Amino acid sequence: MNEMTVGRPSASPQAMAEAWVEAFNRALAQPDIDAATALFAPVCFWRDLIAFTWNIKTVENREGVRDLLAATLAATGPVHLTLSGPATEAETPNGMVVEAWAELETGIGRGIAVLRLQDGLAWTLLTTIEEIKGHEEPRGRRRPMGAEHGISRGRHSWAERREAEVESIGRDTQPYVLIIGGGQGGIALAARLRQLGVSALVIDRHERPGDQWRRRYKSLCLHDPVWYDHLPYLDFPDNWPVFSPKDKIGDWLEMYTRVMELNYWTKTTAKRATFDPSSGTLTVTVDRDGEEVVLQPTQLVLATGMSGKASIPHYPGQERFRGEQHHSSQHPGPDAYAGRRVVIIGSNNSAHDIAAALWEAGADVTMVQRSSTHVVRSETLGAMTTSHLYSEDALARGITTHKADRIFASIPYRAMADFHRPVYAAIRERDADFYERLEKAGFMLDFGADESGLFMKYLRRGSGYYIDVGACDLVADGAIHLRSGVDVSEITETGVRLADGRELAADLIVYATGYGSMNGWAADLISQEVADRVGKVWGLGSDTPKDPGPWEGELRNMWKPTQQPNLWFHGGNLHQSRHYSLYLALQLKARQLGLPTPVYGLQETHHRQ
Questions:
Q1: d(CA 420, CA 410)
Q2: What CA–CA distances, in Å, run from 69 to 59, 192, 586?
Q3: 413-430 and 432-440 helices cross at what angle (nearest 10)?
């Protein structure tokens, strides 16, 4: 079928989608890579979540499509798309498109595809594998019986079997996957792996699951709404608050580890790890509550999180400061600082949250803003960005969390800024008075390097923004003092000296200066050589501040194979931990099974940190 036949502008959305899917199926079955490539627009994006590439990979334009198919089609096996549900029309920054969903089947697995057509040709295509044939999760009609009816001598109860498993793992039996980090990322992945029958052990340095949240500053809460934050298999209850306080989240995570039957070692710190290429296993030495234990997993996942390895600036004179100083990740809360003078270096989420809590407790707070910050009010963000996919209204329209995740994933990162730019222009207009007050106070605002707003900043650099829940009013009113556009030159015995010569007296200095690349954990645990081989973790290569090029098209080294065999990175917010844990778990399951997993487009190393 040629382009003109597929792209009849007078055809209905359903007819256009059916024609495209039929032509694509036929081209792949022959196989005819040129015919399949011709079904894509000259400017197009194909995002694949392990279905063809055993990778998380986006290719662009026809040359990218052709290369992907030429490299992967022989190993993918028979491929077939079947439309599911009616095709519809939608308006995008690229103009009107036809949107269609399809079930995808390959030689190895089943998943979904989300297709957008313009003039009958594919503008965007998402393909995913969400289960491996013969190794489907025991869900729905496949759920386990649980109870064993009948009479049997020597029968072991569920509790006895579970206790035996807990006692055995890491001693008599070795986990196939060791997950370092027991926050939302680590436990989401462990839950996925358990349902797939993959032996996994989570280790975490805290005393209890959920302490990653409980031990943070007092006022911390989720800035994302509840519909965006569910964990796999177990949604928050319908009466759960829209924005969850940190301790409530901590309790939920602790409960989750128990009801999902996760093997989870608390008070355990990984000390060192080595990889034996001859045996294909790792040796990881851990300290488990004072006892040295040697583990030998096959796969190692660093689920230490984007907010894990603190980035602490080094200023002259820090050692002579007479007061207290710590990174925001170590901030205990405001209660001990009533009447004290506090200088916070930084102006993003943690800086604002900590400053507001300190002000409420009666501290004299000054924020040092060294560079501009993107700010968006929480209620505005929810109303104008996430609500169309994650809200009660979205659920009423039939957009479940599962469907919302796939819609979100179907927007390629290269095109995402175009989707977001008009939204943030409308936000700027809607809250013009709010922004005017902030700027009059001297606060330096931005809307991203290309005016695309918060989420693109998050993807590109993981920092540089604040979701306002009230602190900005204190800044605008002068209740929180502001020093902007100036860096710190040194720390004195009694405070902070700025580059312009002014000195800020302080009893406490809080370094709200963010976090380093996750490959820093690999350097600490394995070696700097391995960390350099893997390279920078996170960022798109957008060539914007703190996200140097070249363009990658996906987040660097996240949820996919790295240049170090058997080493993986997993993290992000709750939405990303939930969604991408599925694809990481399936990649690990395939390797446990010994299935061929030829990786297309293995992440290259362009930046070491």
A1: 14
A2: 10, 29, 21
A3: 80
Q: Could you please report the per-residue DSSP string of 46-58? A: EEEESTTTSSEEE
Q: Are 372 and 444 in contact (CB under 8 A)?
A: yes
Tokens 């197009």 identify what position?
44
Q: Identity (one letter) of the amino acid at 397? A: R
Q: Which of 590, 588, 606 is nearest to 543 (CA)?
A: 606
Mark out the alpha helices in 260-333 (DSSP H runs).
none
Token readout for 8 is 């009849």
Residue 609 has pLDDT above 60, yes or no: yes
DSSP per position, 173-222: B--SEEEE--SHHHHHHHHHHHHTT--EEEE-SSSSTTHHHHTS-TT-B-
Flag whether pLDDT at 235 surpasses 70: yes
Is there a contact between 561 and 568 (Cβ–Cβ < 8 Å)?
Answer: yes
Q: Which helix (DSSP H) or strand (DSSP E) does residue 99 occupy? A: strand 95-105
Residue pLDDT, tens place only, 253-309: 999 999 999 999 999 999 999 998 888 889 999 999 999 999 999 999 999 876 667
State pLDDT tens for residues 47-61: 999 999 999 999 999
Beta-strand relationship, 121-128 and 488-491: unpaired
Q: How far apart are CA 280 and CA 272, in angstroms?
A: 17
Q: Are 518 and 304 in contact, with CB atoms under 8 Å apart?
A: yes
Q: In which region does residue 531 sit, left (phi positive, over 0), alpha (psi from -120 to 50) or beta (all else)?
A: alpha
Output the six-digit token pair for 75.
């190993």
Report which residue type is found at 600: Y
With a CB cutoff of 8 Å and minimum separation 6, the contacts of 294 are 283, 284, 285, 286
**Two tokens, residue 293:** 């234990």
Quote the tokens at residue 425. 């222009």
CA distance 108 to 253: 33
- Three-state secondary structure of 434-474: HHHHHHHCCCCECCCCCCCCHHHHHHHHCCCEEEECCHHHH
Of 159-163, 334-338, 553-557, the poorest mean pLDDT is in: 159-163
Token pair for 13: 């959305």
The angle at the Cα of 505, spanning 502 to 507, to the nearest 5 degrees, equals 150
The tens digit of pLDDT for each residue in 533-592 reads 999 999 999 999 999 999 999 999 999 999 999 999 998 999 999 999 999 999 999 999
Residues forming a β-bridge with 265: 203
Other Cβ atoms less than 10 A from the Cβ of 156: the count is: 12
Contacts 24+ apart (CB under 8 A), 279-286: 280/566, 282/178, 282/566, 284/178, 286/203
Tokens of 152: 């049997």
Instruction: Give me the amino acid identity at 153.
Output: R
3-state secondary structure of 271: strand
